[in-house]
Amino acid sequence: MGPQSSRVVELRIPSELGYEKIAREAVATVAHRLNFSEEKIEDIKTAISEACTNAIRYGSGSDARMKVVVILTADENKLDILIKDPGASGAPPIDINIPDISGMVEGKHRLGGMGLYIIRELVDEAGFVEASDEDEGNQFRMVIYRVGDHEETNTTDASKKDKGGAK
Amino acid sequence: MSEEIQVSVRDEGPATVIDLIGDVTTFAEEAINQAYQSASADGAVNIVFNFRENDYINSAGIAILIGVVTEARKRDQKLLMTGLSAHFQKIFRMVGLTQYADLYPSVEEALASLNGETNR
Questions:
Q1: Label partner for A132 (CA 20 to 30 A): which of A64, B32, B35, B99?
Q2: Beta carbons of B99 and A101 less than 8 Å apart
Q3: CB of B33 within 8 Å of any CB in chain A?
Q4: Residue whose C-alpha is closest to residue A69's, from A123, A114, A10
């Protein structure tokens, strides 16, 4: 991958738990080529696993006849990941809550609901984006910069991560 | 697609060690819970969950472990976790799991911590 160039890798995986591992391996390969640090590659692998798992479980009801589409767009500075699902469960959540583990342990809250929080903590930008007219379903976008300190981008689609959040 | 997890239980001095080899995802729920229940039925007080570094753990797997934490608190058991990569140590801290289970690099170090407590 030379300077100033961008490369796009597109995957279509069956909506069945376990197939998120293909996206996980693919993104690791792309991130290695971009010379991301090992720590950041592990973060990206976990983030894409969680996002694909959400798309499989909630976005397409674990119906293997459906597909989850993963589009990895890499350039010299960043990796942009878009995950599309059929939107089987309707509108995606608006808020990303900090998991209340003590509430789970005390039986006040159901176990789970941690995926989006983990993603938000691991990547630079993350959020659901509005699908274009020809696309139906949900689209979740994540951006990871190769260098931690980057200039603010003008994106309005993806919610900016709270830089003051726990890491 | 998911690597089936292999779970085994062994006694190691002051603790019962549950070795986990493979993916810690929703597919591991039955195996992990069975191992934990087996250890508890044998009277385990200190339980070490020994992960294989770099295995795949996702939030569904973490939720299974939180379920174990819930049961362990009811039984007044101590949970320890070993073998996690630096990345998953970070994730476990991030979600707050380390409030309920101490992390150690290895089983040996976890057991040493328990022996130290016993000698005190």
A1: A64
A2: yes
A3: no
A4: A10
Q: What is the pLDDT of residues A112-158, one digit of tens each?
A: 889 999 999 999 999 999 877 667 899 999 999 987 644 444 444 44
> What residues in chain A have their Cβ under 8 A from chain B's Cβ atoms?
16-19, 21-22, 24, 39, 42-43, 46, 49-50, 53, 99, 101-102, 104-107, 111-112, 114-115, 117-118, 121, 166-167
Q: What residue segments make up the domains of chain B, in order of their start? A: 6-119
Give the pTM.
0.87
Task: Say how far apart CA B33 and CA B89 lie, in whole Å.
Answer: 21
Exposed/middle/buried for A154, CB within 10 Å: 0-12, 13-18, 19+? exposed
Map out the domains of chain A with their CATH numbers: 7-145 (3.30.565.10)
Per-residue pLDDT tens digits for B80-118: 999 999 999 999 999 999 999 999 999 999 999 998 865
Coil, strand or helix at A140: strand
